[in-house]
Design brief:
- This protein is an alpha/beta fold.
- The chain has 3 domains: 194 residues, NAD(P)-binding Rossmann-like Domain (Rossmann fold, 3-Layer(aba) Sandwich), CATH 3.40.50.720; 106 residues, Immunoglobulins (Immunoglobulin-like); 93 residues, no CATH class.
- 25% of the residues lie in helices and 17% in strands.
- Helix 1 packs parallel to helix 7 and helix 5 packs parallel to helix 6.
- It starts with a helix and ends in a 5-residue tail after the last helix.
């Protein structure tokens, strides 16, 4: 069997290991999508801080939730490493490294060339290498391929090269990694067939997409993949695509499972509704085994139309239960010490909702709601403390939360502002307070804003991270 035929077979049965190089806003969602699709995935990155956050179960990308990571890891489908010697164990490598604009407003290919040189040291026959990074036409053939061929292998014969420019749109709820349209290409017919193969590197039909296939828009209590559902029998809804060929739904079947793996094997170990003669597709109540507080489940549905024509199963969806009984609640108010003799629950005049504590063990999962920046910055305003703006990757802030924080900082009258190099400094140009700029935990500059912006060390560090403005 040829190299291309062997790889195509492994891609088709999902046994091919996918390697994603660069776990940023493109790479991490792609790695999770591939894992949810059923592929074993290894993520590679040189940033040890990112690895530490992932090891702790925390995502630093808005499009990937902590629950997404936990599910993929629990299923044994996703891991990550800074050890690039493991590149050779992957069947397909997807390069998602940054290409920031240089001083001449041209893509800086240093990350691409450095990655290609690293891959070449571990390249083996039969691998597929796909470039996702945004760059100019010809980069794959004229830059990437020659560097890979330094391995002594020949592209198109020993290994295969493709291009699939990233199309991420952070914050867009409709078009995500699994659903956004993409253009893909391969260097030669065999490479093109591998890149375009169903279920391969092009993951538009991956399980994260609710708006693909004949049965779409799966919702639980009218929410997409919700957490904290607090009714015993959640109501499920879906819709049928106009292109499905099903004019009227005559029957449906719902499977609900305790794991994604069970659902992929068409096992509804929590509930198998069987074929139900009904045209109902909204607010169909869950009718399976009693669900426990905090339990996460996975579900899918298929329908039958006129003449008994059945659709394929929908893409999987999920929900998790909230705390259903009063006895499940074990939290208590934290903050100001309660005076002796005052009962728990008695309102206090100044309930400071903050407390420092140490966890005895690593938490298995955490869930929070609300705008934490509003709370934290408000406390800084009241306390008059020095202001601290931490970097998004370290704090796991979303783009929206970062914008909210920036807006609040402009309204504050603190005596000092601390900024780190990860942030675009444009929003603090109106601040008159002294500024300290940090990079990798080291103080680069301190003084007025004009002073630090003109500091050569700050300029060099900023350009090195691809920042502009």
């Amino acid at each position: 069997m040829s190299h291309s035929a062997s790889l195509a077979a492994r891609l088709a049965d999902h046994s091919a290991r996918i390697g994603v190089v660069g776990l940023g806003y493109v790479g991490l969602p792609l790695a999770v999508t591939a894992a949810r699709r059923g592929f074993p995935v290894t993520g590679f990155d040189i940033d040890a801080a990112k690895m530490d956050r992932l090891d702790a179960g925390h995502s630093y990308i808005e499009a990937v939730s902590d629950a997404d990571l936990a599910d993929c890891v629990a299923a044994g489908r996703l891991d990550w490493t800074t050890d690039f010697s493991r590149l050779g164990a992957c069947d397909a490598l997807i390069v998602c490294v940054p290409t920031p604009l240089n001083r001449n407003r041209e893509p800086d290919l240093s990350y691409v060339t450095g990655t290609a040189e690293t891959i070449a040291r571990h390249l083996r026959p039969g691998q597929l290498v796909v470039l996702e990074s945004t760059t100019f036409p010809g980069t794959t053939r004229e830059v990437l391929t020659p560097l890979l061929e330094r391995s002594g292998l020949v592209a198109g014969r020993d290994f295969f090269v493709g291009f699939s420019p990233e199309r991420e749109d952070p914050g867009n709820e409709k078009y995500r990694t699994a659903t956004i349209p993409k253009i893909v290409a391969g260097d030669g017919p065999e490479a093109a067939a591998l890149v375009e193969a169903p279920g391969a590197v092009r993951l538009q039909e991956a399980s994260g997409g609710r708006d693909t296939g004949p049965v779409q828009g799966l919702r639980c209590e009218y929410l997409t993949d919700p957490s904290g559902i607090d009714v015993d029998n959640p109501r499920l809804s879906w819709r049928i695509s106009p292109s499905s060929g099903v004019r009227v739904q005559r029957e449906y079947r719902i499977l609900v499972a305790g794991s994604l793996e069970a659902l992929r094997r068409d096992r509804g170990d929590l509930w198998d509704s069987g074929r139900v003669a009904s045209a109902e597709s909204s607010w169909v109540p869950y009718g399976g085994r009693k669900l426990a507080s905090g339990q996460r489940v996975y579900w899918k549905v298929r329908v039958w139309g006129d003449g008994g024509k059945a659709t394929p199963w929908s893409q999987p969806a999920t929900w998790s239960m909230g705390l259903l009984q009063a006895s499940d609640w074990h939290g208590k108010w934290i903050g100001q010490r309660r005076p002796d003799g005052v009962a728990e629950g008695t309102p206090l005049p100044f309930p400071w909702l903050r407390k420092t504590f140490t966890l005895a063990a690593k938490p298995a999962r955490n869930l929070s709601h609300g705008q934490r920046q509003w709370l934290e910055i408000s406390m800084l305003m009241v306390s008059g403390a020095k202001l601290l703006l931490v970097d998004e990757p370290a704090a796991g802030l979303t783009d929206h939360e970062t914008a909210v924080t920036a807006d609040l900082l402009l309204e504050l009258k603190g005596d000092h502002t601390l900024i780190v190099i990860e942030h675009d400094m444009s929003f603090v140009r109106r601040l008159a307070s002294p500024v300290t700029v940090l990079c990798a935990g080291q103080v680069l500059s301190h003084g007025t804003l004009d002073h630090v912006q003109a500091d050569p060390r700050v300029i060099e560090a900023y350009l090195g991270r691809g920042k502009h403005g």
